[in-house]
Amino acid sequence: MSVLVIGGGPAGMAAALEVANAGVAVRIIDNNSDLGGQYWRGTATPLSQAVRAHPLIEVTSATAVWNVTREQERFVVRTLCGGVEEEVVAEKVILATGAYDRSLPFPGWDLPGVMTAGGAQALIKAHAQPFATRVVVAGSGPFLLPVAAALIEAGVTVHEVCEARSPFRWLRHLRAILGNPARLLEAAHYLRVLRSHGARISYGSRVVSAHGERSVTSVVIQDRVGTHRQWDVDGIAVGWGFTPDLSVAQGFGITPTMVDDTLVIQVDVNQRTAVSNVFAAGEVTGIGGARLSLIEGKIAGFSAVGKRVPWRLRERRAHYRFFAKALADVYRIDSSWQQYLTDDTVVCRCEEVTMGTICQTINDLGATDTRSMKLLARTGMGLCQGRVCGQAVAEIVANQCDRDVKATDLLAHRPVITPIALGTLATFKREERT
Amino acid sequence: MITIYINGEPLFVKEGSSLSAALLNAGTRILRATRFNSEPRAMFCGIGVCFDCVVTIDGVRNQRACMQLCREGMQVELS
User: Closest residue of A to B25, CA-based?
Assistant: First the structure.
């Protein structure tokens, strides 16, 4: 039996270790230069050390999956590393491809100096490198606090943290807070760091626009009551929570489903997906944090080798999923961000498609779904293949057409998962396998 | 420290640094101009998803600066 784990973050590593501890050889393919995913970017942990030390685990870093096909009872996975292709065959696959920042456009978001909250934190975690010197952190979600605190500890001036939702939304989820007191303490710690620094924290507030010539120099914020204020900045970190990276999963024939406004890979309690011999664990099954990812990774590992899953893991999984559901409700994003878009606002960054062009395409050319929008206006056709703009375009089109976003607005089958040069394709030689 | 080359000019960077982090450390944020409107772009997502940070490395186009680690003698072209 051969097991392949795609993704070397907490979930992937936890899964691989369980598989290897059961005596089964396993390979981890990860597209970063080192293990750890986003959460443990630039950090060696006991888990990553155990993974590297285990004789049955092979780690392939800086390698992306670009295509998947099925041959009889096995999956043929084509990978790409530094312009060289390699084919990997596996009978069982565990998908742990994680998540990335959810992005929503606003005027000036394409200016140099505007980054996602995840990106700002990745630079600090892996390279102790601040992305700017005077910033505002904005968006929604618990992630804004640790990012702001990390920036402050790295010497950055954080003027303000703008949380779009009201903290009173937590009153509907007291059970979740009481069941996870460590989270409350963690939040209190970040708030203390922010307060000592003199950073303002506001709720019901958001970035309305970013301004600057070739780089961001100021940001306009709208507060809870509608007043605008401006800060001089050279950076803005914007975070709207996370969205699962589903591109590899779709290559395996999995159709993601909408859960709490997010497209995820649906799994059963054993982390099985709808495709036999394919398991999924971690953020890709639903945003739930590192602790849940580790638990799901372990469960997937047990399931892949046919071992009984300990009850304690099942209990913890349910516990963390309950908390994740509460988080999703507290920080749910509504459609109000759309009212701040102007005709000039770039929505699809790769192809430079503006809001004006999108509206024109809907009104004049009759594009009422995202596929037509893509074919007529090129949204989602650039290098990122809709990863950044896809959700936003789907919501804009749905909103303009007075309907809700459907899963089909967000699904696109892309046989080429990551860009690959024709020359690389041409030089690939499939080895004869016995 | 190792030496990389930005548009032919040498730059001393920390070994193991990503190209985008090294450039940011050296004060360079703008990495390219967009294809249609020549708008300046810098790193956006920082984790290899958005492809806004693409530069040419050792003659190969469309390399994400945030994903590439600096190598001794690396030739980087910023457009």
Answer: A129
